[in-house]
Amino acid sequence: MSHLKNVLRLVGCCLEFEQPVMVYEYVEGISVSYLLFRKGNHDDDQTRKLLLSWGNRLQIANEVASAIVFLHTEFTTPIIFKDLNPSNVIIDQNSGVGKILDFSLSISLPPGKLEVVKDIISRNGCLAPEYAISGIVTQKADVYSFGVVLLQLLTGEKMSTLNIEDPEYI
């Protein structure tokens, strides 16, 4: 399997259970969600300011985009991450590289297909409206989620929960 520094490396898996168990490389890091939204002591604030400079925010956005492009293009069947949000992006404390993690909701598109119908599952406010309404998942869902993550990186604000069935928000 190809590898990109912005995607945690799969070390192994066990298929003996109803839900496959996946083991990924260990990375000591801090989530972008923690950096953006957690209010802490003075030392935390100094670290947060350093790690979230405008240059670092741009680097994080570029690394997340590279990871999504990698998942969508480097395999015979594209992988849709489906759960891109600031909690699933960490900054490796050793290398400073942004990495996506937690592939528990990701899916691989069937050969020759551009979409798949899946149960609507999301743990964040970054869910693409067309997926939320129809249950149809395409690579565009990851692009939408990336846009939400980018907005959060730029503003430092959490996404409020919207009524996604309201046509005003589609």
TrEMBL record:
Pfam family, one: Pkinase
Gene Ontology MF, one: protein tyrosine kinase activity
Keywords noted in UniProt: ATP-binding, Nucleotide-binding
Record-linked InterPro entries: Kinase-like_dom_sf, Prot_kinase_dom, Tyr_kinase_cat_dom, WAK-like
Statement: the UniProt record of this protein carries the keyword S-adenosyl-L-methionine: no
Protein kinase domain boundaries: 1-170
GO cellular component annotations of the record: plasma membrane
Keyword Iron set for record: no
GO BP annotations listed: cell surface receptor signaling pathway
Protein's recorded name: Serine-threonine protein kinase, plant-type
The species this protein was found in: Solanum tuberosum
